[in-house]
Amino acid sequence: MIRMSVTKLTLLATLLLLAVGCQQQDAAVAPPATSQLLVFGGSILTLDEAKVEAMLVEEGVISALGDLNDLQALAPNAAKLDLAGRTAMSGFIDSHVHVRELGMDAIKADLVGTVNVDEMVERLHMKFPTPKPGTWLIGQGWDEGAFASRGYPDRAALDAAFPANPVYLESLHGFAGFANGLALKAASIDATTHDPEVGQILRRADGTPTGVLLTLAQALVTRQVPAADAAQLEQAIIAGLNTMARAGVTSVHEAGMDGRDVTAFIHLAEQGKLPIRVYGMLNGNDDELMQHWFSRGPLSRPDGMLAIAAVKVFYDGSLGSRTAMLRAPYSDHPELANPTERITPAAVKALADQAAATGFQMAVHAIGDEGNDRTLTIYEDALAAYPNKDHRWRIEHAQVVLPNYYQRVAKLGVISSMQSSHAMGDSAWAEDRLGGQRIHYAYAWQRVLDNGGRLIINSDLPGEPWTPAETLYFAVNRQKLDGTPAQGWYPGQALSVNQALQAMTLGGAHAAFQEAMTGSLAVGKAADFIIVDNNPLTMAASDLAQLQVIEIYVAGSKR
Asked: Does the domain spanning 1-85+521-559 belong to CATH 2.30.40.10?
């Protein structure tokens, strides 16, 4: 059995005619050069029910799938790729990432897992043992949700440890920052500084700042941090993309490009330097950027390596920092909550109207149930004039929703873009924030599918464990990497392996209007595939996080 394109059927006939005509030729004549690659000798996961023994790639495109003998006859001179019992599958599509940040993290202190300021200081000393006075020291990864539960840190230890260097520490999910005294001084923040309109400066009893800045208050300090130049920015992007490629990612959706990011990605694409595919989502909170792109229209390169066609809007805050917009008060410490609109509903509506008119996809960050409800209402209003539009608009995170959310997104065709790692990272405190009733409408992936909605699963890296193997493990097991809780956290919302793979491959391709090009192994699609050491459909679910990527191919070329 062979599945192939019309072109391959023609080629097969030509090859057979040539074979008959050349029967009397010298057998020692060298075969012609070929750009064909024959993949065989292991499992080939096509994400449909048909099982195939081999895959033929030609000029970067999958040209045939079928029995090994048939494909060998079809392309006798093809280069051979023997899987040796391993598995070939579609490359993962991480449909919500911050890849530039991932690359930039190489120059920051890693604070993931720290539980107090002393541990942060220790990590900073390890990363910057002899810093030049005046140099900014940057760290990333302290968990603002966990600290919000036990109490936010104070800068006293940072001040004592680094009296000659401004220090700024980014939180795990980006909704809080932690600065020492010199960094605050550089930003002119003291006891008399008023909170910005959207954001909060946490203070000691005497009114002096603790160093913790929530949501947009972070900008008071971050605008003082020296920015990377254009070359460093491109280096960070390439470093981030290569890191993801090694983990088995063949395509990413970059969530929230600013103007300098856009310039860097376009320049890299024009030079042929992007190692994997990039679908760009513009920073919708940047008015100047969006007016330029609404006038220009979406970008899509013929080689398929870069498209910029979506608008990423940051609407509310985060559940961990109690800045997400909930309809009812937070169940734990409502007096500490500061629900935050980072942009007004009217501004989001204006963006949605322009996106609908100019062909851009909307993707709104909404965490709380009130934030999600308002976003859906804006979508419904903006799309009312385009009842037949294939919009594929998205809600990023959809973390806590009202009970009617699931029917509304299914009816409207809105994609729920969710993160399996967030569910497990937040599981220690999420129910405290929400209470026993709302938690059933949080991180609820199966509810989306059960109601006929579209679901994509991604990492939102950097932050929580982000590799596709870990993302898959979290989605299927709803357990932390140490296997806890034993039965899984609200296991009724766990995905099957096949559901999770669909949400991490073909679902991501569909969400970028690229399902005809990538997302599964099918004839006519780009040969974006990876070789892994085990078959995720048959291996133990508890071992999924250990799935190892051996090789990665984009458009048939090994990366």
From this structure: yes
